[in-house]
Amino acid sequence: MNKLYLISRYVKYLLLAKTRHGVHSPFVYAFIDDILNDKMEYSDYTIIEKEVQRLKKNRNILEIVDFGAGKNSEKYRTYFKRVSEIASISGIMRKHGRLLYRLIRHFQPATLLEMGTSLGISAMYQAKGNPSAQFTSVDGCASLAMIARNTLDNVGCMNVELKTGPFRTILPSLLDNMNKTLDYAFIDGDHTYDGTLLYFELLKKHLNKNSILIFHDIYWSKEMAKAWNEVKKDTEVTVTIDLFFMGIVFFRKELSKQDFILRF
């Protein structure tokens, strides 16, 4: 991640981002009111964030296998890191986790996919948003998946199935074996141009008109920004919402094709 690039993009985002008063789409206006600006302190937040604090105090050291930077499923790197450090630095921000919770609580997708489980922090927010959903979360690292399973069990997220392995290896068969279309996917791993577009093309084949895709870290690098622009231009995409740290994609045919940059 290039910090100078990220800062420059954030300044540009602040200059372009609109509030609800600058939005003329009824769908996006309602999205802002009902989801972005929802200030309710849901009881699930307390349950999840108590577990996050427990992870931030966990001093155990894990061996991490990281496929995220690889160009194919054969390449990876390993390193050692404390659970507390991963939870504090790499875990999803509370603000963004709560947004995922509200988004799922509002739209109630029945089939969910997460690419990038890590310690299970973002999975908790998403799973609590719709406890009856069929939810699969994938990560390349078995040691992280072990912690994530314990994390999810601690807060009662029994509807989450964890899969371990490189995305490029697991995703095609996982999608082909689904007995339903995919209502929602959160893509938070392999921050490369090629990888992001590959997963987008694979996911598209299994979506329905109400499906939602969320790409995390869309300005993590110039590659990710380029991939995000390609996603926005896709002819099957109707509405995109750029919140800087994540991009949200809708495929609803009743909506006019528009790209929104919203302040969050």
Q: Overview of this structure, please?
A:
Helix content is 44%, strand content 22%. It is of the alpha/beta class and 264 residues long. An 8-stranded mixed beta sheet has the order 5-4-3-6-7-9-8-10, with helices on both faces. Strands 1-2 form a two-stranded antiparallel sheet. Helix 3 runs antiparallel to helix 6 (121-129), helix 5 (94-107) runs parallel beside helix 6 (121-129) and helix 8 (167-176) runs parallel beside helix 9 (193-204). The longest helix has 14 residues, at 3-16. The radius of gyration is 18 Å and the shape is globular. The protein starts with a helix and ends with a strand.
Layout of helices and strands:
Blueprint: H1 3-16, H2 26-36, H3 43-56, E1 61-66, E2 77-82, H4 83-90, H5 94-107, E3 111-115, H6 121-129, E4 134-139, H7 142-154, E5 160-164, H8 167-176, E6 182-187, H9 193-204, E7 207-216, H10 222-233, E8 239-242, E9 246-250, E10 258-261
Helix pairs in contact: 3-6, 5-6, 8-9, 9-10
Secondary-structure element pattern, one letter each: HHHEEHHEHEHEHEHEHEEE
Termini separation comes to 22 Å
Taking the sheet with the most strands, its summary is: 8 strands, mixed
Order of the strands making up the biggest sheet: 5-4-3-6-7-9-8-10
**Residue-averaged pLDDT:** 94
Pick out the low-confidence regions: 69-73
Over all CA atoms, what is the radius of gyration?
18 Å
The coarse overall form would be globular
